[in-house]
Amino acid sequence: MHVSHPKLVLVSRNQSAQREMTEKTHKKALFHSMMLSSTFALSSCAASPGVSSAQRFGAMSAQFRDDTNKIANDIYDSCIRRVQFFRTDTVDLRKVRDEAWQDCDRLNKPAAGRAREANQIVVDYADAIGRLASDEVVSYDKELTNVGTALKGLSIPTGSGVPISLPPSAVDSGVKIASFLARWAANRYREGKLSEAVTCTNAPLQAYTKEWGLALNEGYIQGVLQQELDQAKFFYDDYTGKAKREGGTWRDFLGLSKESYNVVLPIIERRNAALSYIAVISRTAKAHEDLTKIFLDGSKPLTPESAACKSFLVLASSASDSLGPESQQLYSKELSQYKLMKAQKVLVSYRNDVSPLLDQMEKDLRGK
Question: Which residues pair with 13 in a beta bridge?
Answer without folding.
Answer: none
